[in-house]
Amino acid sequence: MFAEQKKNELDLSQQYNLYKQSLQQLAQKIVDLEVESNEHTLVIETLMNHPSERKCFQMIGGVLVEKNVKEVLPSLKTNQEGIKSMIDQLSKQYKSQEEQFTKWQKDNNIKIIQ
């Protein structure tokens, strides 16, 4: 019986760690995407102040491609919208997983001791 209780505690501990790790990974991905979105905002604001025919460079697949501002701005805005959409999806997923984790903690009577 003691061995069974130890095994159960070990399983709960592993499951707790998996939940925490999963939440941390989601949070990190959200932060990374927010940084990328902020970079897009900065570039868009900078390019808006320049003539549309001005030469600029865009990195595509690790290669710098020469374009002009009017060619680059639409793709930057589209990319930024996609990033924001992904942030929204990941935020919803994070909240859902956090609620699952909280429910799991209550169901298994898990209390954090510091």
Report on this structure.
- The mean pLDDT is 92.
- This protein has 2 helices and 2 strands.
- 0% of the residues are buried.
- The radius of gyration is 23 Å and the shape is rod-shaped.
- Strands 1-2 form a two-stranded antiparallel sheet.
- Strand 1 (55-60) and strand 2 (63-68) form a beta hairpin.
- Helices cover 75% and strands 11% of the residues.
- With 114 residues, the protein is mostly helical.
- It has a single domain (7-104), classed as Helix Hairpins (Orthogonal Bundle).
Q: Give the beta-strand count.
A: 2
The side-by-side strand order for the widest beta sheet comes to 1-2
Low-confidence stretches: none
Distance from N terminus to C terminus (CA atoms, Å) equals: 28 Å
CATH level 3 topology? Helix Hairpins
- State the CATH class: Mainly Alpha
Helix/strand/pairing category: mainly alpha
Provide the helix percentage.
Answer: over 70%
Task: Output the keywords.
single chain, 114 residues, mainly alpha, Helix Hairpins, two-stranded antiparallel ribbon, 11% strand, rod-shaped
Gist of the model:
The protein has 114 residues and is mainly alpha-helical.
Topology of this structure?
Blueprint: H1 2-48, E1 55-60, E2 63-68, H2 69-107
Helix pairs in contact: 1-2
